[in-house]
Amino acid sequence: MGKFGGSMKVLMYVVLWLFPLMGYANTQQVELDKLIAAPTLTLKCTGDEQGLDIPLANRWNVKKVTLNLHYVSSINLITSQSQLVVKLNGMPIAQTKLDALSPDVLVQLNLPVQYLSAGYNRLSFAVAQHTESKGCEKGCSPDMWTTVDLKRSVLAIDYENKAVPVALSSVGTLLFDPKVFPQAEVHLVTDTQDAEQLNPLSIVASGVAHHFDYRQVSFTVSSKLKPGVDNILVGKHAFVQGLLGDAKLALADHPQGGYVSMLPLPQAGGGQDAGHALVVVTGKQVDDVKLAAETFASMSTFPGTSSLSAYEFKLPKLREYSGRELIEPGKEYTLKALNFPTATFQGGNAGSKDINFRLPSDFMIRPNLAAKLTLHFAYGAGMRDTSAMNIVVNGKIVKGIHLGNSDGASFQNYVIEIPTRLFQPGSNRISFATELHPPLKECDLMLTGNMFLTVFDDTTFSFPDMPHFVELPNLELFMLSGFPFTRWADGYETRVVLTETDDNTLSAAMNLIGLMTQKSGFPLYAITLDHALSAAWKGDFIVLGSPDSISAALGGKGLPFTKGKSAVPYALVRDWAAEPVLVSSVQASQLGEGQGYLMQFESPYEAGRTGLVFAARDSKNLLSLSEALLKSEVQAQTEGELTMLDLASQEDKAIVKSFKPETTYTTGKSGKKSFWQSYLYTHPYVYYGLVILLTIGFAITLFAVLRRYRKKRVAGRAV
Length: 719
Known about the structure:
Blueprint: H1 2-18, E1 26-31, E2 40-44, E3 47-56, E4 60-73, E5 83-88, E6 91-97, E7 104-111, E8 119-128, E9 145-149, E10 154-161, H2 169-175, E11 184-189, H3 198-211, E12 217-222, E13 230-236, H4 237-246, E14 258-266, E15 272-283, H5 286-298, E16 307-310, E17 332-334, E18 343-346, E19 352-359, E20 370-379, E21 388-393, E22 396-402, E23 409-419, E24 426-435, E25 452-455, E26 460-462, E27 469-472, H6 475-481, E28 494-498, H7 503-520, E29 528-530, E30 540-545, H8 547-553, E31 566-571, E32 582-587, E33 595-602, E34 610-616, H9 619-629, H10 632-636, E35 642-646, E36 655-659, E37 665-668, H11 675-682, H12 684-718
Parallel strand pairs: 11-12, 11-13, 13-15, 28-29, 28-30, 30-34
Antiparallel strand pairs: 1-10, 2-9, 3-8, 4-7, 4-9, 4-10, 5-6, 5-8, 14-15, 14-16, 17-26, 18-25, 19-24, 20-23, 20-25, 20-26, 21-22, 21-24, 27-37, 31-32, 33-34, 33-35, 35-36
Helix pairs in contact: 3-5, 3-7, 6-7, 7-9, 11-12
């Protein structure tokens, strides 16, 4: 019977999973854990509500939304008084009893389409939970819980694409919409044999990725239109006119300068694809095309006309280390500026809220300094004196603020100094976690209206200035912010080299540029693309291709898996106290199907500058691996000097193996390396010794000067 019941349960899961797919052409389904950074939601106490946001793209005409919800509740709950309510944008749409005899539940719900709108829609789960012990109920007993399994809960959205109006305003409202999921796809069309078009093409790709914000976007490139996806045609006027003529479309005549136009996307068999669009970025000469590309990549407001002409583009001088969520050391920020509006925590299960920001990836954080958090907050009366607000930095509790006044209190300029050793280069998080306790005796009714804590958005935060000095190779920094290629937000002094000229290699390069754009949060206007790298290049560079072609492009540099002899690293088992033992095998071997790697090293042309290679056996595999790099789970495992990728595994999941560097190099703020700074950084005892010697020398000199001065005074008195 148990085996039969288990089989029926599996069959039910399969039916519920496949049911939304029947009868609809366009269906997107996603596990709820992909919409929020948590595998579960646990609802506690007598009453609790938590939720997540469902993104709905502007271009979707939603027909049906189905939720296969899986949850588990405590077996100690009183069934007749406990329930789970599902809400959509605040409106209750379903409710179910929390049955102690059937705690593991899978239920299918149809979400009413009339309560949904384009944008982010709040799906929340609220519980009323009751239990009894010794004739009374505690407000937050440990056995009062219900957990929603987000990984096994699946949302299916059935939709049709809306017709895209032939107006540039559609670009901002419909085409590049970060609410499209699971990923966006854009096809870039250009004259792939014209090397001059590479830079305008990369600017367009970077601008598109910037518009999609955090949403994963996959690029393909060719010299022909691609049906079924949005196309962007980038090229000189003659190429564009020829391609449009083949599709029986015409481009309106335009004066000198850049030109951006919106056209219907032709279908292969004739007619037009109303659900997708063709955007044209063109000009008479390559400089005009670049001007149009820069304008297109920068626009946040698009005109309602079908075309525009661009005559000039000015980019203000950018400072180093500017980009998404990056704070400037020494500057004071309000919480409002850090995207943290005034927040009120209320009730016995109020939870926490976060501030997220980034520090420069090459910050050499000095541990003996402190960041300054100046709090403005207030809390309610009538709470137990065990109530507190905890300040948590990157998962570590650093300060607890006692909320001990039974009459409540309000504070201005409550200063907390947080040791800088708790922060890290790259992403950081400060959390406000609350513990609000009512002064209850056994069986007292818990009233929560007076249990609140409000943190005001004029609270300020500042981080002290630090030297920019980091030890590389470290691919983790590249995945965090695109460093060092985004040291300047626009990619200044970075060159991307394509050792092959085919469409797949170019597509892989666009994916990599899109990835760096989304990490830094700024279009890469200044990055340059080429088919070769001169020995005179003094900046940072990225090279894509096969190991042998990359090695040849870099003057015979030794890389793993080339046809000749090359060193290949392997990691052996490590003990608890040490890093893995790396061994190196000199061998002649080749990359296989689905295999490739990222490798970072110091530029052979300029000390302190960085080279990065992205290698696969051929361009087809290179494109597949570039798409794998867009996935967050792959990025999280990429670190050290070398990261090996293998897609030839089950379930189309990449196997990622990273290797720490045996030798390192250092780089500074401008990318240049000071020999003495590097030497003292890597030999700290020499630095301390010099400080001690200088201190002793200063003391001896001061003593000698004072002694001489005293002798003169004594001699003067004697006269």
